[in-house]
Amino acid sequence: WKDSVHEQKYGKLGEVVHHTLFEDGTITKYDVQFDLDNLSNQYKLGKKNALFMFPKLEDVSKSKIDSILKNLCDFEYNIYIKTRGKDPINPKEYPNVKVIHDGEWHPHPSIDLSFACDLMINFDSTAVKEASIFNMPTINYNVKGKDRGFYGRLPFLLNENFIFHAESGDISQILEKIETTNFTSDFEQARKKYFFDRENVCDQILSLV
User: Fold this and answer.
1) Could you give the CA distance from residue 97 to residue 92 in angstroms, rounded to a whole number?
2) What's 182's DSSP letter?
3) pLDDT of amino acid 196
4) Under 8 Å between Cβ of 107 and 96
5) What is the pLDDT of residue 160?
6) Alpha-carbon gap, residue 133 to 136, rounded angstroms
7) What is the DSSP string of 113-151?
8) Pairwise CA distance, residues 62 & 203, whole Å
9) Mapping DSSP to helix (H, G, I), strand (E, B) and coil, where does residue 32 land?
10) How much is the pLDDT for 10?
11) pLDDT at 101
12) Residue 2 near residue 186, CB atoms below 8 Å
């Protein structure tokens, strides 16, 4: 291991469950073996957790953020706002949530939280792909138009049952639907049709070498 921090977190190279592809011993983001207890301690997870993919600053005015956050709080979700260093926000503006900035790059906080959270609030980010792979229903707001982001790059997911398209800031009915619906078979079918078994990504890459 080149990075002692990675060694401390993931163990020695021989203890990695899947094939390693990179010189420092890391593996692809999907092959990571997550430990929900560790993630719960790290992020202080609650009974219900929502990953809020904060929009680019240029799209904030179209995003109905305050109304969405109020709905999530009314439904007693712990809210994790994920933003990027180049799109900073002031945590004091949102006292009832935890703001997560870019941290470790492997695994990235977005991947950790995609595994650990119960739903995603999305603003046309292609992170909807990770949500699909990690069984996370998604409420999406089309803020980029029809030819960019989610709509432009992943249009085949637009009509999946676990994707909800919202326009209003009031998402209470959608939250009720998500909490009372089992989407397991929908996720399985989507992964089989469009994606892959995330635990075999390294094996599939190596098979092509």
Assistant:
1) 9
2) -
3) 67
4) no
5) 96
6) 8
7) HHHH-SEEEESS-TTHHHHHHTT--EEEE--S-SSSHHH
8) 42
9) coil
10) 47
11) 79
12) no
**Which tokens hold the place of 66?**
């305050």
| Alpha carbon distance 68, 184 (integer Å) | 25
Minimal CA–CA distance to 140: which of 163, 161, 174?
Answer: 163
Rounded to a whole number of angstroms, the CA Rg of the chain reads 18
Reply yes or no: is the peptide bond before residue 107 cis, omega within 30 of 0: yes
Apex CA 136: angle with CA 134 and CA 139, to 5°? 145
Structure tokens at 78: 């712990």
Burial class (CB in 10 A: 0-12, 13-18, 19+), 186: middle
Q: Which segments of the chain have a pLDDT < 50?
A: 1-6, 10, 12-27
How far is Cα of residue 25 from the mean position of the Cα atoms in its chain?
24
Instruction: Tell me the residue length of the chain.
Output: 209
**By three-state DSSP, how is residue 16 classified?**
coil
Nearest one of 3, 1, 36 to 16, comparing CA atoms: 1
Tell the residue number behind the tokens 């953020």, with chain if given: 65
**DSSP labels, 183-205:** -HHHHHHHHHHHS--GGGHHHHH
| pLDDT value of position 102 | 67
> Cβ distance 49 to 21 under 8 Å?
no
